[in-house]
Amino acid sequence: MTERILITGGAGFIGSHLARRLLGKGHEVRALDRLDPQVHPERERPAYLEDEVELIKGDVRDPAAVSEALDGVDAVVHLAARVGVGQSMYEIADYCSVNTVGTGVLLEAMLERDLRRLVVASSMSIYGEGLARTADGEVAPAVERDRAQLERGEWEPRSPDGRALTFEPTPETKTPSLSSIYALNKFDQERMCLLFGSSYDVPTTALRFFNVYGPDQALSNPYTGVLAIFGGRLLNGRAPLIFEDGEQRRDFVSVHDIARACALALERDEAAGCALNIGSGESVTVREIAARLARVTGREELEAEVTGKYRVGDIRHCFADISRAREVLGYEPQVALDDGMAELAEWLQDQTAEDRVESAHGELTARGLAW
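and the corresponding structure tokens:
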């Protein structure tokens, strides 16, 4: 059955890929996007957004724009958000306004509509550190690294009594540990939407995205995904900069798999009321991912620089247990990391990027948020 689906933030990286997938399924797609200059420097409709997508240029905090965007809509995928851990720690009011207040405006407008489905983008950032166990197999309580530990260059988290920890894939049952304003905002968005859904009988699913990468990511945004940041550095003939010692472990998931998960969440009744991890189910170190990207782009000579520096809000290890998404959505990652990185490398060949990484780090350092 053909539906009209609204994607907030629909002119962005993930939104454009999801729009393409939904159009391929025969749906009509509308995007609401303010074309933030940090993501869209030209403030114009991006070339990668399919012509068939109806674009409404507007802010998710503007009730009139949101009301217009919701007219005649059957389902909503709420992706609109300001992203970036570091920037969220000093542009606090704007992050909270766009992410939390914007979600509130959207949900209030939805009160007057008869919607079949709501899907909201959450984030792995809400977990803080991933699931960890002590040597005797006990699940460690929420662990945080204090400033004194980091200044000593002791990167690995330890249990409250100082024991070494082993990290495992993180399930949805792990208690959130919100270590940045961005993480708090994403938790707000998730809980607000799920509460709205249960209160007003609108089937709602929150998808906790892990580290998303792929073509059409904003290369000049220094607070975007790490692979896009590394790609932008390599394009400019500069070595990627790695914080800490580069042994942090992450779960890198292709944007194609993310789009597939969103489409499944719109279809599966079993997903109503759920918060689900969407990742690859595999982990890789940041140092390794930098080396692999340099290799597939033919820039092996640009060996990553391991800085030994640290940023407030960064976590050490977090990678996804996706067994629940497999069970509930029938989700299965289809893009292997090597294949996804090859696609990214091919796309990078025709791109240009303004390298703002060092200026962004300088901003954080000046504010005492990195050292």
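(Above: one complete record from the training split.) The two ends are 54 Å apart (CA to CA).
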